């Protein structure tokens, strides 16, 4: 009985054919960096996996067959099942790449970016408990300007922010800006606000974290201590 069940399990698996667990998706990388384009396949069976690069129009160059590299072995490698890694990326590597399994093809675009020269996060006015203050993230001189994501103590709240670009040039360089209004409470002291630089397929390329220091918090604390001391002194005098 067990043998019959195993036979049908193998038969069903063979009928299902290979599947893309993770299909290729557009990916970004810095010039000179290493890019990996995902193509994770299961239940391959007798099918094969082929990577191709679209060089012009519909013309392609075959890079690999399963794990065998058919192009430059110093440029390409297959990692896992069957991700394509491209080393020392140059502008000529910017292209559409195709992962074909059996008769099914999925494709993704590799793009190059130049990271911003600086990322900063700052309050636009003094942060005080009980007030609403704008918090701004600026990524300077990136090509193209990146998208910016916000996290408060690792919780994403990007949907509350306003994103825009400034100083954009015809060359593609520009500044990315993102501003969010924060309603501050006394419990926000020491909370962490993180701004991350994101490109398509490349997340957390850069980041900046700001720890909240509420204005006047130390003075308020001192005032509270002084008030407590005065109350204690008053109680002591009444008991004398």
UniProtKB/TrEMBL annotation:
<dbReference type="GO" id="GO:0005911">
    <property type="term" value="C:cell-cell junction"/>
</dbReference>
<keyword id="KW-0393">Immunoglobulin domain</keyword>
<keyword id="KW-0325">Glycoprotein</keyword>
<keyword id="KW-0732">Signal</keyword>
<dbReference type="GO" id="GO:0050839">
    <property type="term" value="F:cell adhesion molecule binding"/>
</dbReference>
<dbReference type="InterPro" id="IPR003598">
    <property type="entry name" value="Ig_sub2"/>
</dbReference>
<dbReference type="InterPro" id="IPR013783">
    <property type="entry name" value="Ig-like_fold"/>
</dbReference>
<feature type="domain" description="Ig-like">
    <location>
        <begin position="116"/>
        <end position="215"/>
    </location>
</feature>
<dbReference type="Pfam" id="PF07679">
    <property type="entry name" value="I-set"/>
</dbReference>
<dbReference type="InterPro" id="IPR036179">
    <property type="entry name" value="Ig-like_dom_sf"/>
</dbReference>
<dbReference type="Pfam" id="PF13927">
    <property type="entry name" value="Ig_3"/>
</dbReference>
<keyword id="KW-0472">Membrane</keyword>
<dbReference type="InterPro" id="IPR013098">
    <property type="entry name" value="Ig_I-set"/>
</dbReference>
<feature type="domain" description="Ig-like">
    <location>
        <begin position="18"/>
        <end position="111"/>
    </location>
</feature>
<feature type="signal peptide">
    <location>
        <begin position="1"/>
        <end position="17"/>
    </location>
</feature>
<dbReference type="InterPro" id="IPR003599">
    <property type="entry name" value="Ig_sub"/>
</dbReference>
<dbReference type="InterPro" id="IPR051275">
    <property type="entry name" value="Cell_adhesion_signaling"/>
</dbReference>
<dbReference type="GO" id="GO:0005886">
    <property type="term" value="C:plasma membrane"/>
</dbReference>
<keyword id="KW-1015">Disulfide bond</keyword>
<dbReference type="InterPro" id="IPR007110">
    <property type="entry name" value="Ig-like_dom"/>
</dbReference>
<protein>
    <submittedName>
        <fullName>Junctional adhesion molecule C</fullName>
    </submittedName>
</protein>
<dbReference type="GO" id="GO:0098609">
    <property type="term" value="P:cell-cell adhesion"/>
</dbReference>
């Amino acid at each position: 009985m067990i043998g019959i069940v195993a036979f049908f399990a193998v038969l069903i698996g063979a009928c299902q054919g290979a599947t893309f667990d993770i299909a290729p998706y557009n990916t970004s990388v810095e010039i000179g960096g290493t890019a990996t384009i995902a193509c994770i396949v299961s239940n391959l069976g007798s099918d094969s996996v082929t990577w191709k690069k679209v060089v012009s129009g519909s013309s392609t160059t075959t890079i690999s067959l399963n794990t065998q590299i058919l192009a430059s072995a110093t440029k390409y490698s297959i990692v896992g099942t069957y991700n394509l890694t491209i080393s020392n990326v140059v502008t000529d590597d910017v292209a559409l790449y195709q992962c074909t399994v059996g008769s099914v093809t999925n494709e993704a675009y590799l793009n190059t970016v130049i990271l911003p020269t600086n990322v900063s996060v700052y309050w636009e006015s003094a942060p005080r408990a009980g007030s609403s203050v704008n918090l701004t993230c600026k990524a300077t001189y990136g090509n193209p300007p990146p998208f910016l994501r916000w996290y408060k103590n690792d919780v994403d709240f990007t949907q509350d922010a306003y994103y825009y670009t400034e100083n954009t040039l015809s060359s593609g360089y520009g500044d990315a800006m993102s501003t969010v209004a924060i309603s501050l409470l006394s419990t926000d002291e020491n909370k962490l606000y993180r701004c991350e630089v994101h490109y398509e397929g490349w997340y957390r390329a850069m980041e900046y974290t700001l720890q909240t220091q509420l204005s006047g918090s130390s003075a308020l604390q001192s005032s509270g201590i002084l008030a407590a001391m005065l109350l204690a002194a008053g109680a002591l005098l009444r008991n004398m």
